[in-house]
């Protein structure tokens, strides 16, 4: 059986909530647990027998993903990865419909569609098995969240006996359900017929109403999924594993922890271990082979240390991501933070944030920054004996007394 997969990567006009990190790298390519966000999507897809081609659809420049595609060819030689560029932002379903001929080339039976900005265990094989038990056109991956945050997502009301989705509302104003969409779908190819109907319906509404604005975007959530519920063609497969939406830099830290936990289950050799002549490792830690850590340092839990990072004597790092070429000097402390590319934390300095656990994507409230992780963007220097708490620091800054 042949499957195709599509990763929706968006474009440069989005991702503003991921600043200042997205000033240097597009959010889909930001490294989490040692690899770009969408590398984890490819790893999951590589475990589905029959997936031979993955199409990335968005409206970034073609060159943005070329290096990633070259690396993917090496890491996943059984999968052909291509990037298809939209001529403008077409909406979450518009790109799928625009490139429908490419997606349907070689006559795949079913199509995975994954949003780039999610992190989870990707139970794709389980979705396939479930999808083949019903007669719907789409299986959507769902998970349950706390009631008070459910309205930040697409909410699903299901029929318990067969998991048919009876009602779908994108970011409802009032509470509908705490079962939400994870942004991962499995479609039959007949979905393109439904997309064609949706495009015709949008055109007809404009023709009927002279005051109706022309809208070229086709939205998966509102224009496709909601009509599928009316025709009993949408079903939900619920996962109880952790799921994180990667919207802001703060969300990268729990996503990092999630993937490190996945490594422990599936690839424990990727994680750093305690050695007699090495640093003290607490919990789950990933270190790039080119990074160096002084044996007197204490690292973890939930830490990723990137290429060519230097960690000095007596350093403490916890729940953080340290990016390429950064340096944490002697007796520095980094907690709940992201240290950007080529940044330096001085001797006896401390960079500390506050953990976020409620799927919050809000950075400010009433003009004031909400306490969350601390972020040092590219080439930020923190001089010796400085304390940074709950701050976002823009690139090329020097912090001193």
Automatic annotation (TrEMBL):
Tell me what this protein is called.
16959_t:CDS:1
* Naturally occurring in which organism (per UniProt): Cetraspora pellucida
